[in-house]
Amino acid sequence: MASQAPSFSMPSALPALRVPRPRPNKWLVTVSITFGTLMGAIDSSIVAVALPHMMGTLGATFQEITWISTGYIIANVVVMPLTAFLGRLFGQKRIYMSCLALFLVGSILCGTAHSLTALLVYRAIQGLGAGALQPTEQAILRQTFPPKEQGMAMALFAMAVMLGPAVGPTLGGWIVDNYSWPWIFYINIPVGVLGLVMVATFVHEDEDIVAKNRELAEKQRKNVDWWGIGLMVIGLCTLQYVLEEGQQDDWFNSSLISALSALSAIVIAAFVIRELTCEVPAVNIRLFKDPVFLSGTLIGSLMFALLMATMFLLPLFMQTLLGFTATDAGLALMPRVLAMMIAVPIVGRIYNAVSPRIVIGVGVLFIAWAAYSMSHFTLQTSQTGIILALTTQGIGFACLFVPLSTVALSAIPRHQMADATGLNSLFRQVGGSIGLAVAATLLSRYGAQARTALVPHVSWNNPAATERLQQTASGLMARGIDMATARNLALRAVDGAIALQSQLLAFERVFLLAGVMFLLVLPLLIFLKTPEETAASGGGSSKEKPEVHIEM
Fold it and tell me: Which of 466, 490, 505 is the last residue of a domain?
């Protein structure tokens, strides 16, 4: 019998093989997502120097034109805490690219605006787009860099967040002086388009996080927390309005500010209760149960309050008392920027070798020292003295921002990173607004108090004051001015000297108070323990280390 050849049956279809996606180049990811964050941070401050030019073009009053900045900030803070909510529904990468595209559309519209109303609407659109950029970048960097390089990841993020407000006024002044104010918006377009292309090419979401987000998104779709979102929007908008407009309206002497303050407090309290009791909250404020995240976020918001306050005070001091132009004042702040650029990567590299609490403590002392130096500024302060104080402050901010951002998020699971970064960014933004409001209020009140204290010393009963007045009048008369006019001009000159000294004393008191207040941060450092330190001290076992330590 002829042997029959064995038959082999081929399967109809081979099972699909899952080819793991190659790990993305972390540096290309960093560069890609930093473009949007840096532009958003710059645009929060670049407009300030162009406001006088906009007033003339649009025919607006000073009070009306300030809403260009206020509207942007309000739109910004509304989106920040919702970043994780939106990211779960649509994907982190899609949200980042959509918000960056919205920011660019808003920038184009702002440059073409021919009325105040249009510019306010377009500026709000720009702010809505910028709101998600910082939290999303922070989350993506934490998910991209391995555990041992988390400090460097946050150092790179710090460069964008801290350099934006520092570079904005200088860049805006140069553009306005050499071109026209619409170009402060048009300059975003080529940079933003490049950022979009790079994000589309190099940024890829981690598959494990995508799977977890899909699971959470299903719960969100079935139980959308509309009440929580509504309460959050109302609470944050009213709070931000109070912080932005309170000083101008004399705070609680204004019935509107008083009513909005009460409304904000009630609505935010209702929002907190809603999010703690809701089955699927839109904003995961339960993360604040972690003392490390809570203390790190609070210290970070205090740091940003001081940063924004000094960003506001120093240029004002140099322009009103030392006679600097807006551009010169912006350039004078560059030593702080350079100090941060040099110090931030160094702090990022030593993060794993030195306890974060030590680095933060050193940063607090540097900032307190810088504030003490600023409190001794005079009308004769040299450029060298200003540079030394600013350099010291820049090093201090670098020592704070990197470890704070890293430690605060160290115990957060990776799939909740966007929730944490959204809250972290929100508190920084609100902290900056509080710092600006407090600095402006104290400067005004301290100035009035100093003037009240100085005026009694300049009277006809004071021989020194009388002699100074007579010398000034005599000098004017020697130039051919009649006695009555010379006497009137001499009185005005003395009054101007009193006003100048009153402003100087006010600046000195605010600088000193900022330094003293920042020293109060030191006791909070006891809560800033990394998961490793907590386990070593008996607070937990190695099994309880968070998912953030799983390398991607």
Answer: 505
